[in-house]
Amino acid sequence: MKEYFTEAKQYFAFQWHITDDCDQRCKHCYIFSENTCKKPDSVMWEQMPEVVANCEDFCEMYNRMPYFYITGGDPILHPDFRRLLELLKSKNIPFAILGNPFHLDTHVCQRLKEYGCRKYQLSLDGMKETHDWFRKPGSFDITLEKIATLKQAGIRAVIMTTVSGKNIKEIPDIIDTVVEHKADVYAFARYCPTGEDKNTGMTPMEYRELLAVCDKKFKEYEAAGCATYFNKKDHLWTLYEYETGKFKIPANAQEGMIYGGCNCGNCHMTILPNGDVYACRRVQNSKVSNVFEDRLADVWVCQMEQYREYDKFKKCAKCELLAWCRGCPAVASGAHGDFYDADPQCWKEVI
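^ thats the sequence. predicted structure below, dont judge the formating
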């Protein structure tokens, strides 16, 4: 059996959408946002080992460890979902699941744990009325209920929020709710405009104020010994913490090096059910290849290079935080149609 768990290697994340099938039609879904007549795709079982092998080859080439984020749609709805997990377990490849709460019960969660599932990400996109409007009536209550079901099975329960002008005022209450239900991890990211409306509904200063409110709340919970980990996923946290003094540019930082910020082109790629490879699923026009046609190791140094041209960032290239922040190019792309355009929620003035 191949062993991937060594301290000398770093993980490389493959976000693999194995199916578009889903028992929700969320209002901010990327899959059906601009094509309401789209026929759902699903990868066939015969293709799954080929995808895994291509990813393994990539990691062997670049001395990385594969980590799969299995998602959809709702990946549990794929008829060969369990066979895929058996395949990953046989290769000792770690994975997490990004899915819905509706098909989780004690037995299912126990089986997921046996297959090696490390964490399961659910979504809360508002308090009850707002969340159920975004997703599906009853979804709010069942999502909270399944946090305990996952934790009882030994799987880390992750709650993720997509922030927009529709729910920005509810984020503090969501944090309180997540802590009350003892979720292991909480994070939020911003809505990437995908339809005709290119406005996220948040001004830069409104978003900065949200970060300030959340930062205060996170610190209060941490001081009280709260077990929930608050993952500051959005890279504009770096700008906020730079301004508030928590983050400082290292004195030994080398010019031309990239130390953090957006993972696109660095340690992540997305594979869709039809095999299309995207630099980032949140960047709608970021298809770079197809996993059934090309070797991913070659794609990484050829087609993917267009997402590593850091001097092209119209605003960030002039900022001292270029190597650590860059905001969210996916939000910029959704709003302006240009991956390298300015993040619409970045409040920093750059000359």
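The radius of gyration is 20 Å.
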